[in-house]
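::Amino acid chain::
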Amino acid sequence: MSFFRSKKMRYYSLVIPRESAWVVMNELARLGQLHFVDYDPQLPMINRPFANYVKRCDDSLFKLSCLELLLKEFKKDLNYCENVDGLLDHFQEVQYNRMKPGHTYFDELESEIDQKKIQIQEQSANLHNILDRVNVITEQQLVLENAKEILGQSMFQQQTPHNANEYQQLKFGQLIGVIDKEEEVRFKRIIFRVTKGNAWVQIKDLNNEQIDNSMRKSFHLNQNNTSQPRCLFVIVYPGAEESGSLRMKLMKVCDSFNRQRIEYPNSMDQLQKKMIDLTQQLQEAKNLIEMTKKQLEQSLDDLVLQKQGCNCSYFEYMRLYVLKEKYLYVNLNYLTMRGSIFTGYFWLPEGLEVMVEEKLRNAMQNNRDHYPTGQIQEIKPQSITPPTYFNLNEVTMPFQEIVNTYGVPRYQEVNPGLFTIITFPFLFGVMFADIAHGFMLFLCGIYLIFWKKQLLKQTDSMFNLMIPFRYLVVLMGFFALYNGIIYNDYLSISLNLFGSCYTPENGEWKRESKDCVYPFGVDPVWQASGSSLNFMNSYKMKLSVILGVIHMLFGILMKGVNTLYFKNYVDFFCEFIPQLLFMICTFGWMDLIIIVKWLNSYENNTDPSIIETMINQVLKPFDKPVNPVFPNNPEFQLQITQILTLIAVVCIPWMLLPKPLILGGKSDKNKVSMSDSQYQPLVLEKQVSDIDDDNNSQFHNDLQNAANHKSFTEQNHEQHDSGEIWVHQMIETIEFVLGGISNTASYLRLWALSLAHGQLAEVFYDMCLAGKLDTGGIIGGFLGGYFYIIFALLTFGVLMTMDVMECFLHALRLHWVEFQNKFYKADGHLFNGYSYKKLLNDNLKSSNSK
């Protein structure tokens, strides 16, 4: 069962000639079941044989990303690949029909990508330049038109004075230009200071951004205008000489604002001629825009169109192929090159050796030069932990992700993800228990399942992120609905689905008969009784403790399964058995007396207190209980509690002492044997051997120890120091004993969250609907509709979003801390299969989510 435990792995060596390395790696990637081991993780990628190829692939991907921005800018919709296997088959067919080595196809694509990038970016730059030219021309037209309105005809009709000395006093000059809108106040202030108030300044908004946007829309351009709002300035000052000091000062001020300054014509004829000239220039620029835009869109359309036999746009075709090539060379760098031979190591799931050999034969057939494709050989790994690999599908994936977020399972240990499929949504349902809210969540999951394909096409849908977790949402909604029926809670209202066993009589509720039992869930009469809150609180609190202890006991049992599977009998007898007995004799006994109390009726207010019973079990071990849980049998209860208390007390030193003593004895024996002089020459012999030709990892460890002047005795002493063993076991014992109390109390969150959910639903119902529906007439109808909208918004905003997240996080904590710490090591590493299909599928998901 590959989901209960990870698949068994085999360790192989791979030897392939350099000439057929690309073909072999290309075939093995189609299998997708090899986990390559890096021969030197400390070696930087830049120092590896194919670092240059990886860099070339990165450069090509960067160029494609630049083209993708232009495609989005012009709203060109790409056709993404829907069948990765078909695309990979098309890649292989294209490479085979080229009659050239397969690795040379990337060289052709790289050259084509470079040419298309240069061509399209040049066309785009030309279009931007022409658009900027149009903006300048349009701005000049606006400036001249607005300046004419401000200055009027009088500026062209200034009379020459009779006295030449009075010329400068009667003649006025002007400066016209454009500045940014945000510089308006500062510009006026500087002009006033420079001219000492002897100049008239008029500023008017040009609304250039609106005109630019309208012009772009007229050309059907989707580029956003990023120009800042600008305004026209007109300065009229005394004196019209070109070399006047005041004019020179004003020109320096205007030029310092880095905007254009426009020469205003001296006559009306020149002004009209200038306007006609600008109109002609604008028309020519618009014609150029049309031509350039047409050429650019034609080039972009070539990227969007599908090639024959390809199920996606040509742009996607090139991008995915470059990604595939980069992935191949990155994994090829994990192999070490010796002469003309590549040697590497990989993990393979058990039973797939035949498929790998078949792929090697296919590689020889696809290799036109018929070079040998190498061989694989199984070897025994030395001090290397195999990766953890599970066969996941759309149902199990989200639950395994919940587990992996805490930590990856150790190789071959029990996988908590299998149990999380049921326990996680169930504990969520205990906290979120409500018939209406659970049913809405269930419908949301059903919608995600059956309308998956339609939702994937809507890239802006808020449900897209929930699609991978649709089965988790369905189960969460189902168990919330199920527990809501058990609690008989529908928006804080109890439903009388099967007929109550109680009838009202003289203002009190009387049971019809002792044998009458409500068929499923809580009798609705409790909602109408005055002790409803006390009864439901007591029931939910005890139920949460029972569920928590069962959950933790199951985790301890999984620890026993792990110890037996790994044949770790020391942990089985010195940890698993005492931990199981301790939990059963303490909190398991508490659950039992809770159930016994539920099954018995007590008279004359002799109901036993569960808390008092548990406290007296420790503080008064020899006193008979005053109110025994077992009716009329206090001696039996006393004997049981004494036996259970004795077992629980004995389990504490049982967990603490035997394991360190056993491991400490083994450690001392290892120290004596490793200190023997017969082991010393091994280091000296290996020191003079050839390091590069030795593949034994233990040999490298020996050399490292010798270099650090450490003997085998010192190394073994560090690994099995008895002091560390005692400290570790003491921490484990204290953590388990105290954790048993704290973890059991932590499961009370099942009761607390359920209580909070029910109380919030009741408050929303009482404040919004209760009493508002009795008002008749038109006003009552409007009020009812108004308060119903408020009720719906509060329910969705608080209970269906915030409370769902809150219950989800608390269920997550119960699994990570209270359940998994009983057996889960979480120190493994995931199996990373060398697979084109996985690579392209993951990349397509990220592309579709953008």
